[in-house]
Every structure is written in C-alpha cells, then in structure tokens.
Design brief:
The structure is a single chain. The chain is mostly beta strands. It has one domain (about 1-113). It has no helices and seven strands. The chain has strands spanning about 5-10, 15, 30, 45-50, 65, 80-85, 105. A seven-stranded mixed β-sheet has the order 1-2-3-4-5-6-7, with no helix packed on it. A hairpin with a 3-residue loop joins strand 1 and strand 2 (about 15). About 40% of the residues are buried.
Length: about 110
C-alpha cells in the first residue's frame, strides 16, 4: 500500500496526492490529486487540482488547472492558462494542449479543442 504524499514541501510548495509534484524543484506550486503536476521540474506558481491536472507541465508557470486531467498536455506555456475541466462520455478535456497560452480560459468538456 502506498501512502499519499501530503504537506508543505521545500520552496513554499503544497502537495496532497500520490506522485503529485514528484519531480518538482520549482516554487509556490500547489498540487492536489494523484499525479497532479507530476512532471513539473522548475515551473513555479502553478495550481493543479484533480487527477493528472497539469501532468506534463515541466517549466511553465502561473497556470491553473482544475479537474480530471485539466491542462494535461501543457508543458512549457509561459503563463496564465486556466482550465476548469469536466470530462464528457469520451473523456475529452476542456483544455488539453501542449503549446503556448497567455490569458486563456476554458470551461467545460471539449472547450478549445
């Protein structure tokens, strides 16, 4: 049985969930949920709430992802991506991208796909 990682980490990071913020060295991140911000290395000021939220994020900062796999494929977007995702019957996600976004918000299943 694995225990979920919980608590405040170094560099003012907060985490709750198995493998959340697993590879992190960034600062001011919040990851709540299994695999939230899993791949994050130096990205800072991100908020990921939900299973797999911001999973592929590595260096991007100032992103907010709420919901199952929200912003799952986002990797290096500079800033201000916001996604509130609700998967539909095909499990498609509100904002499931890997490019750049600045001040973009997506709410609901398949938005901005």
């Amino acid at each position: 049985m694995r225990l979920a990682k919980t608590g405040c980490l170094t560099n003012q990071n907060t985490v709750l969930g198995d493998d959340a913020l697993l590879n992190n060295t960034g600062s001011y991140n919040t990851a709540i949920g299994v695999d939230a911000l899993f791949s994050n290395t130096i990205g800072s000021s991100n908020t990921a709430i939900g299973v797999g939220a911001l999973y592929s994020n590595t260096i991007a900062g100032s992103n907010t992802a709420i919901g199952f796999e929200a912003l799952n494929s986002n990797t290096t977007s500079v800033a201000s991506c916001v996604s509130i995702a609700a998967p539909d019957s095909d499990r498609r996600i509100a904002l499931f991208l890997g490019g750049s976004c600045v001040r973009i918000a997506a709410v609901g299943s398949t938005a901005l796909q």
